[in-house]
TrEMBL record:
Pfam families noted in UniProt: ALP_N (PF17989), MreB-like_C (PF21522)
Keyword Zinc: no
Keywords: Plasmid
TM ranges: none
Claim: Nucleus is one of the keywords in the record: no
Domain of life, source organism: Bacteria
Boundaries of every Actin-like protein N-terminal domain copy: 8-129
Listed name of the protein: ParM/StbA family protein
InterPro entries assigned to the protein according to its UniProt record, in alphabetical order: ALP_N, ASKHA_NBD_ParM_R1-like, ATPase_NBD, MreB-like_C
Sequence ranges assigned to domain Actin homologue MreB-like C-terminal in this UniProt record: 193-316
């Protein structure tokens, strides 16, 4: 029996991020999943990407054109979420590790979506149970592994946390549970976390001593990196007179390079990228200023989440906080925090 690993799993709407500090593993997989077996080819290659959940087949492949929209309210408790999380764990750790204790997250407005801002216990419990499905009947498995008699993955323990708070704890603790260099500033002075994810942007102002948040200074904006890519997709289609959506892979490449290659032609789309970014940044800046205000009472303002890679520089310039910083590898901040909370605070 292989060792049971504690893992942070940021199961976001745009990407699944995996982190384990013990083995120094961080892994990202796009949150692209389609209903059914939607690809053809060599059986082994195909079966590696097909996941069975409760007898239903799902294709986990970043090039799926028929992929499910993960921005729905029921995504955190769906079979699609199960397929993505199990496949991400499998790809990150391989056949040597098949049993996991995990921490996942929910955006602030959903985690604290109960009456008067209390925890949304029903959603938290449903999500917790949803991902522990293989403890009940081993009904989740990768077709390739099943045909090669590999044990299916099991999640033996699962806790659900609020995402922006996880990024805060990531900044406080090292992978060994010790204090970081930022600890005194954040713990004694309080902190704002701006978490730009796939579907949402969370803003959380955390009080000194770290135990509570200021309700009036926290909020969730339904805008994220998927919003940016959706705007860019429509802009490009209109400019180039295309009827087919741009694939997610090509949109990511365009955001990195400023150009879009179609066949033998390369198109400069930098102006369209700027327009899309400006629309998203304007909404985020307005929301941040409502909650964080001038930020001068805080030890730091932390920019985290995958959207910080794409929008971080422009946001820091627009917000003009002298204590703002983009954390290292911001896309993995929540996953790192989930791992640290699970390993050193909850000790699951």
């Amino acid at each position: 029996m292989s060792k049971t690993l504690v893992v942070g799993v940021d199961d976001g709407h745009d990407g699944i991020k995996i982190y384990n500090g013990e083995l120094a593993i961080q892994f990202r997989m796009p949150s692209r999943v389609a209903i059914g077996a939607t690809i053809m080819g060599d059986p082994d290659d195909v079966n590696r990407k097909i996941i069975s959940v409760n007898g239903n087949k799902y294709t986990v492949d970043e090039f799926c054109s028929e992929h499910i929209d993960t921005r729905t309210e029921d995504y955190p408790v769906s079979e699609a979420n199960i397929a993505l999380v199990y496949q991400a764990l499998d790809k990150a750790f391989g056949k040597d590790y098949r049993e996991f204790k995990i921490a996942t997250g929910l955006p602030l407005n959903r985690f604290y979506g109960g009456q008067d801002g209390t925890k949304n216990i029903e959603l938290i419990n449903n999500k917790t149970k949803n991902l522990m499905i293989n403890l009940r009947d081993k009904s989740v498995f990768n077709l390739y592994e099943a045909s090669n008699n590999l044990d299916p993955i099991s999640i033996t323990k699962h806790i659900v946390l609020s995402e922006a708070q996880c990024a805060y704890f990531d900044a406080l603790m090292t992978d060994k549970g010790k204090k970081t260099d930022l600890y005194d500033d954040l713990f004694e002075g309080g902190c704002a976390v701006i978490d730009i994810g796939g579907r949402t942007t969370d803003i959380a102002v955390i009080n000194p001593q770290g135990g509570t948040m200021q309700t009036s200074r926290c909020g969730t904006l339904d805008v994220g990196i998927i919003t940016l890519k959706s705007i860019l997709n429509q802009n490009i289609k209109a400019k180039l007179k295309m009827s087919t959506d741009i694939s997610d892979w090509r949109l990511n490449k365009a955001l990195e390079s400023g150009t879009l290659s179609i066949g033998k032609e390369s198109h400069d789309v930098s102006d369209l990228i700027t327009q899309a970014k400006d629309k998203v940044i304007e909404q985020i800046v307005n929301k941040v200023k409502v909650h964080v205000r001038d930020g001068k009472d805080l030890g730091a303002v932390l920019l985290v989440g995958g959207g910080s890679i794409t929008l971080g520089e422009q946001l820091t310039n627009k917000l003009e906080y002298n204590n703002i910083q983009i954390v290292k590898d911001p896309e993995f901040a929540n996953a790192r925090g989930m791992y640290k909370c699970a390993a050193f605070m909850a000790r699951i």
